[in-house]
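USER: Write out one fold?

ASSISTANT:
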Amino acid sequence: MSVLPRLVVTVPERAVPAVVAAFETVCEAVSFLRLDESGDVWSVEGLLRDPARRAELDTALMLAASAAGADLPAITTGEVEAEGWLARTREAFPPQPIGRRFLIRGTHDATATMPGRIALTIDAGLAFGSGEHATTRGCLIALEGLRRRGPIADIGTGSGVLALAAAALWRVRAVGVELDPWAARVAAENARMNRLHRLADLVPGNAWRARAIRRRAPYALAFANSFARPLCAMATTTARNLRHGGRAVLSGFHPAQARMVEVAHRRAGMVLERRLVVNGWATLVLRRP
């Protein structure tokens, strides 16, 4: 049975967009994954259907590393069976019913539907934010328990799934910002793919400091699916950017860290409304009185 080389590199965050672009010149099924809590170490991988193009990839990676001011990454190689790799992708990321209202599906299953659910198509090549992680699930379950409101902010939008889900559920304006320009571009493509680009503006930006976010503040609802420490650090800013009565849906941390996140936001004047735990990950819903 024929096999394809599976190529993997580990790079710092600043090099991810350039390295992903280099992989895309010759590889299929390119994906990237954050490896540590600091967010500074990422894995990028892809399938090389034509081994003769390996030298082309080496050159592209050298240019990408130089442009990003990073060391040339070492490539780790493996093999994956050529036949049936799409089927395995489908098996790894099948259509996912989440809560009572949502169905998250990959581009390979873009026609999948379930009665009574809002179906969102998300690029399955993304390693985060596609709905399979418990933090995303927790945020979506929290969302469907809230009353319709807008506008909406999504801080660190990733694939854009939370902003898109809120826009689709409530038909209100949402703005999502993502520090990684490449990921922001993919999020914007996801918005267009779901015909939500007129409601959801997904752009590059640095959290609450992003111009697109500041222009539309204050918000009725804000998502932030990150880590405990960054969420605590921006608690005051989160509260200031919410309307009175506005909610923040926060995730990306373990239940043992939930108290720390809650206390930081209580000090900023917010109150806890709901705490969820999904597969070992916590989600908090907090309100600005």
